Amino acid sequence: MSIFDKFPYIVIEGPIGSGKTTLARMLADKFSIELLSEKATENPFLSRFYQDAQRYALPTQLFFLFQRSRQIADINQRDMFAKPIVADFFLEKDPLFARLNLDDEEYSLYHQIYQHLQLKSPKPDLVVYLQTPIDELAERIEERNISYEQDIPREYLERLADAYSEFFHSYDASPILIVNNEKLNIIKDESALNLLVERIGQIKSSREYFNPNLE
What is the pLDDT of residue 77? Predict the structure, then answer.
């Protein structure tokens, strides 16, 4: 039985450099299912945000919000459960970035727009959270060599990772698998993907942990 028979809608989440998009794409390819991606490269403000966060945080955030709202609207207009889907983002994460990057006045504006859109995203059947140490995030960002990412301050990565940890510590809207992602490198190790897929297939409760170093 495929993991998508058990969990038709799986969301992969984690901070930049955690490998969430790569994992989502590999799962989509492996099981021949639809991939819903946040398409970060389409955001014209993103590279400028990493150079001048204070100036470009709001337009960067609003672009992502409207982009994701269109994607969510598209999902809601069709029978999502007619076929499985894997995504590398979910809407509930969006305010996390907004609170992290915007000042109080900007966040107030963002929140008004967020509420006005009245977004109601489908509930994931499973969230896979890739919990990744800061050193590993920095190393993977350097290895993938996207020019505008090379100037990301370590302090920002630390704040982002802490925000993710805090968010998922209390998240209970969907079943969640928290993965120790330090050594689980699906790009360099072909067996890593199969190991993770096997673990997902074994999930029996609403909150579980996977530490491949201990198994």
Answer: 67
Give Cβ neighbours of residue 69 (< 8 Å, ≥ 6 apart): 91, 117, 119
Whether 91 contacts 119, CB under 8 Å: yes
Contact present, 195 and 212 (Cβ < 8 Å): yes
22-75 pLDDT per residue, tens: 999 999 999 999 998 888 889 999 999 988 989 999 999 999 999 988 887 777
pLDDT value, residue 215 = 47
Each as own residue / partner, the long-range contacts of residues 6-9 (CB below 8 Å, 24 or more positions apart, any chain) are 6/125, 6/201, 6/203, 7/125, 7/126, 7/175, 7/200, 7/203, 8/80, 8/81, 8/84, 8/85, 8/125, 9/80, 9/81, 9/84, 9/85, 9/86, 9/87, 9/122, 9/123, 9/124, 9/125, 9/126
pLDDT number for residue 83? 83
Residue 79 is predicted with a pLDDT of 60
Residue 186 neighbours by CB under 8 Å, 6+ apart: 19, 22, 23, 26, 192, 193, 196
* CA–CA–CA angle 203, 21, 99 (5° rounding): 90
Give pTM, 2 decimals: 0.91
**Measuring CA to CA, how many Å separate 72 from each of 52, 98, 123, 143, 184?**
29, 18, 11, 31, 30
Q: Which residue has the tokens 């090379």?
A: 150
What are 135's two structure tokens? 């050193």
